[in-house]
Design brief:
GMC_OxRdtase_N; GMC family oxidoreductase N-terminal domain-containing protein; FAD/NAD-bd_sf; GMC_OxRtase_C; binds flavin-adenine dinucleotide; alpha/beta; seven-stranded mixed beta sheet; single chain
Length: 542
């Protein structure tokens, strides 16, 4: 049986950071266990390839929620990376820290050390800012690229519409003024995806004290009394047991970290017993607290050429492919989420409450179950889309079987908070207003049904229930908080009531951040690494 100082479960956005930081000390033996396999795949490296990995079971857990009553009993599709790099290998690469107020709220909730002024340096530690000319500023290993030169010219209409509405423009959603409309910066390095694995794991893999095991599905955490002492994992049909001298760290993501805790006997006792698992710790909060962003898109035919005209014809695809191969530039080198914003739907909103997307492309004719980013509609078209930034509804992730290979039951409980419905109406009204600006009226040839323009508040909500979808930002299922009865981890991310066990990933968010969740997850891991190393030092001195 092998022994390590640290065992990290999951090589995703957070796990890769930890593997790097904890193995930087040559005296620590670190094991990183990943259920998926290699990320050396063309469709992972090619930025627009996330349209392909979206449904690819070789790199994707492909979860589905239970039917959700509030969205017409639809099941929501939840892709999650099952590969080195985790979801950072299959995501849309948009890099948004979130709003400073998000983290001040975390601190306000009783999480000392997690306010904006506390966490800002942990974002900076990771980031290597690359300007539009390709010049990289000194910084961390995670490339955050300004790709404004690659953005479609259609964007000028969007910015003109925003100006008519009196919205500010920002050149950096991660800068001192994140509010307003602008262009998303993305995680690419010279036109190739820069995942957490590329930035943090790969540079550390040469270290003799870091061992990475792929296709290694962790089945449970092993306890001696209330101390986590190792894990059991299955690899190529064989079950292995490995021991952790210092800590086991779960970085399996917002679906799998709570699932693993429950499989290991840490969760709601009644649920565990129902599945024949003897509780180590009755902790109802494990799996609770689930939050996610949901968005809806409105589709328009355009009066001038859009990305559809470039990428629909075979000749256009070939030209874009050739351009990419020769220069790593063009539409294949970026996300289709090109422009967007963080805006207030009402002048009296205390902080921006809507995130916007303006995509110069449509797929209204796409068959169900396909995400044909490279195969858009045969006419000029574009998308306006919004998502409420800070939904209040909370759901749960619970095991549905004691078998580690069975997917858990996911119940997001969307739109269960009244405020979330009000935010949907505000979002629909906002896009209505934007579509009625002079600039947009010039660009819109015709709206593609359902027509937002004539909708009442009730119809906006009804349409949202019918068509909204996840933006793939689940968080909060092992939430951090000051009260051991309501939260799973403390502000040092240690699991309450147990020793030698932390959770470090998107599941610890006490509340969902306003924007995309990859950047704050990486921040969480940077801060966690500092805390783990500090605790190690203290123990060594004691
Ligand atoms: C399609 C898609 C698009 C997205 N777009 C964006 C975007 O543009 N910008 C943004 O900021 N965010 C985006 N996100 C969200 C963002 O990527 C995630 O919030 C972030 O990656 C979460 O990081 P994590 O470390 O918590 O989990 P993950 O990165 O998902 O890592 C978890 C890892 O643990 C492994 N694992 C799980 N269970 C086990 C087990 N039992 N044993 C061993 N290994 C296990 C998984 O295989 C995975 O590699 C998107 C997500 C998806 C899926």
């Amino acid at each position: 049986m092998a022994d390590f100082d640290y065992i990290i479960v999951g090589s995703g956005s957070a796990g890769c950071v930890l593997a790097n930081r904890l193995s930087a000390d040559a005296g620590s033996q670190v094991l990183l266990l990943e259920a998926g396999g290699s990320d050396r795949r063309f469709w992972i490296k090619l930025p627009i390839g996330y349209g392909r990995t979206y449904f690819d079971e070789r790199v994707n857990w492909k979860y589905e929620t239970e039917p959700e009553p509030a969205i017409k009993n639809r099941r929501s599709y939840w892709p999650r990376g099952k590969v080195i790099g985790g979801s950072s290998s299959i995501n849309a690469m948009v890099y948004c820290r979130g709003l400073p107020s998000d983290f001040d709220d975390w601190r306000q909730l009783g999480n000392a050390g997690w306010g904006w002024t506390d966490v800002k340096a942990y974002f900076e530690r990771s980031e290597c800012r690359v300007d539009a000319s390709g010049k990289a500023a000194p910084g961390g290993p995670l490339h955050v690229s300004d790709v404004s030169n690659e953005m479609h010219p259609l964007r000028r209409h969007y910015f003109a519409a925003a100006e008519e509405m009196g919205l500010p423009y920002t050149d950096d959603f991660n800068g001192p003024n994140p509010e307003g409309v602008g262009i998303y910066h993305i995680n690419t390095r010279r036109g190739v995806r820069c995942s957490s694995a590329d930035a943090f794991l790969r540079p550390a893999l040469g270290r003799a004290n870091l061992q990475l095991e792929t296709h290694a599905l962790v089945r449970r955490v092993l306890f001696q009394g209330r101390r986590a002492v190792g894990v059991e994992y299955e690899q190529h049909g064989r079950v292995h047991v490995v021991r952790a001298r210092r800590e086991v760290i779960l970085s399996a993501g917002a679906i799998n970290s709570p699932k693993l805790l429950q499989l290991s006997g840490v969760g709601p006792a009644a649920l565990l017993r129902q599945h024949g698992i003897e509780p180590v710790l009755d902790q109802p909060a494990v799996g609770g607290g689930l939050q996610d962003h949901i968005a809806v898109s409105y589709f328009y035919k355009a009066t001038e050429p859009t990305l559809n005209d470039q990428l629909h014809p075979i000749s256009g695809k070939l030209a874009a492919g050739l351009r990419y191969v020769l220069s790593r530039k063009g539409p294949l080198s970026v996300s289709v989420n090109q422009c967007g914003g963080f805006v207030r739907s009402r002048a009296d909103a205390p902080t921006p409450d809507l995130q916007l997307y303006f995509n110069p492309i449509t797929y209204s004719t796409a068959p169900a179950g396909k995400r044909p980013l490279m195969n858009p509609d045969p006419f000029s078209g574009f998308i306006l889309s919004f998502q409420p930034c800070r939904p209040l509804s909370r759901g749960r992730v619970d095991i549905s079987s004691a078998d580690p290979k069975t997917a858990p039951s996911i119940r997001p409980n969307y739109l269960s908070a009244e405020q979330d419905i009000a935010d949907v109406i505000a979002g629909g009204r906002f896009i209505q207003q934007m579509a009625r600006t002079e600039a947009m009226r010039r660009l819109i040839k015709e709206a593609i049904p359902p027509y937002l323009d004539g909708m009442t508040d009730e119809q906006i909500v009804e349409d949202f229930r019918e068509r909204c979808g996840s933006v793939f930002h689940p968080v909060g299922t092992c939430a951090m908080g000051p009260d051991a009865r309501q939260a799973v981890v403390d502000s040092r991310l240690r699991v309450y009531g147990l020793e030698g066990l932390r959770v470090v990933d998107a599941s610890i968010f006490p509340t969902i951040t306003s924007g995309n969740t990859n950047a704050p997850t990486i921040m969480v891991a940077q801060k966690a690494a500092d805390m783990i190393l500090a605790d190690q030092k203290q123990q060594d001195v004691a």
